[in-house]
């Protein structure tokens, strides 16, 4: 085995605290999922205490050990929820389903290794979000679009890989409550187009079986032009009878052999992808055609809202990429079938280090919605920089949309508490690859773990999630230091990259490293509009009008430079460099200072990590140290490039006399 077990490595526990509990497991009956739960307890018992638990099949309540109970509890905990009770020498895990019991087992093991399970403990966990998904952008040649952790462990050289690593990956997902996985890139190309054909049926059946035993459904990204690309038709018009018949025949055959398939993710009419627009059809018509075909199988269609004009003219100040998704989809509210779900990015742009919440969230009152995050750090350091994203995601989930008098936060909308939805939840672009530590940077695994835990229970704090992860991945002695590093990493990254909601400022294509004008005169949009007098995009009614997409209270907040959060000031307003911020600093001085402060924070993080030598394992210690050293150098490059750009633009000196190039 050439990979690690991340937070499921179950290290030896010298205290023996839970050895007696793990010595026996009692349950009634069998299922794939219950067998998985038992195996996980056995793995933990062997690794932590060197024991093999005795498994008892009995209806009687035992006096000691761990008791797994399905369906014998009067609490309304839903099909995926669980209850844990600890009395005397017995820990009981209740679930209304075997999946609930599996999640409860992982909950027990998490408590054992982080917070502890005191005698008399009673805990109930019910997931906040029905759909909890990972979207992989893996390609069939083994590469991963926006992948920063090595190659794919799903695909290689046009083949689907079946390996032991798939089992360990699935265990990691189940341990944090993930219940759906899209294994291939939304930009479907090459051999991936054929994933829905008989050619790859057998390995996909194996995946589906492994996933099912862990409470997870398999999803695929679809090529919308498949009727043309592999079906030989001359159209993929969603209302054409030949097209409908081809999809019906193809997906019927797929479901006949993979009845547990969750459904399909589709990127259409975006960045060159085919879609219904080519035929004068709406996105609702395009999505509903597929929705009707998969509905008898319980399948769902996830339809991405990342649709915008990517051939803009930078000189046209009326065009605004931020407005696109709302403009395209709001007129279609209520037009989608009840097994079609719109997948909406957290912001109106593209996973920037800071951008406002998408105005689509909360605005669509009659449409299923899934919120989309990006755990892969495309614009936040590409897993070469530490950037703990859970605090960012918390801000998004806690944002008040003012779409209703109550339950109006984003977390309420996507959980289905604001409006009645048949399907809702949260997805993230995955950050895994075949590197031995799964995520390239050891500390980037905090985003993988943190995503699952946060969307399961959105009331958890960023600090609580970080502490859980550190306890299970490193050790208790490292908790304070690593948690402190994680909590200041996102603010630091924001400071030394792009200021006050501007974003972008990256090299085109690969998106790594500073290039202030990299996309500024590009067809994909315009982002900072800096000249020698001012910078920022006016998105008020006097500008692009984007601000009109928000509900009145938020529109008023963003409309004024006085009430607009300064972290988003330049996203919504064009500001002169002499403008005074709440700190008393001018805008230009803030840019200079923030970039220096961000680099200083990274230097502090490197010092903190260095002090952990001997406290954490040698191999991860050296890997993280090397990455932090690179981050410090790269943060300095960001600081110098951005500060020099604005110095040359404005000829305004740094008040503190620091060197500007």
Automatic annotation (TrEMBL):
Domain Glycosyl hydrolase family 67 catalytic, chain residue ranges per copy: 123-438
InterPro entries registered for this protein in UniProt: A-glucoronidase_C_sf (IPR037054), GH (IPR017853), Glyco_hydro_67_aGlcAse (IPR011395), Glyco_hydro_67_aGlcAse_N (IPR005154), Glyco_hydro_67_C (IPR011099), Glyco_hydro_67_cat (IPR011100), Hex-like_dom2 (IPR029018)
Domain of life: Bacteria
Cellular component terms per the entry's GO annotation: extracellular region
Pfam families per UniProt: Glyco_hydro_67C, Glyco_hydro_67M, Glyco_hydro_67N
Enzyme Commission (EC) number: 3.2.1.131
GO biological process entries: xylan catabolic process
Catalytic residue positions: 271 (proton donor), 350 (proton acceptor), 378 (proton acceptor)
Gene Ontology MF, one: xylan alpha-1,2-glucuronosidase activity
Domain Alpha glucuronidase N-terminal: 6-106
Entry keyword annotation includes Endoplasmic reticulum: no
Swiss-Prot/TrEMBL keywords: Carbohydrate metabolism, Glycosidase, Hydrolase, Polysaccharide degradation, Xylan degradation
Residue stretches making up the Glycosyl hydrolase family 67 C-terminal domain: 439-658
Catalytic activity field: Hydrolysis of (1->2)-alpha-D-(4-O-methyl)glucuronosyl links in the main chain of hardwood xylans
Family: Belongs to the glycosyl hydrolase 67 family.
Self-association and partners: Homodimer.
Protein name: Xylan alpha-1,2-glucuronidase
Organism of this sequence: Vallitalea pronyensis
Phylogenetic placement of the source organism: Bacteria, Bacillati, Bacillota, Clostridia, Lachnospirales
